[in-house]
Amino acid sequence: MGLQVMKVFRELVKDTGMTIVLTTHDPAIMELVDQVYALEDGRIVESTQ
User: Fold this and answer.
1) pTM recorded for the entire structure
2) How confident is the model at residue 7 (pLDDT cuts 50, 70, 90)?
């Protein structure tokens, strides 16, 4: 189900230029996004593009 939701999100971003912010612990989902921010104790400890 998560991958189906991600497909819809990717289409919205592509078609409308919308920005979507989501949270996950799933590494498979993290591989599908444009940018990942890792948080530790409420602080950004890592950022990837």
Assistant:
1) 0.72
2) very high
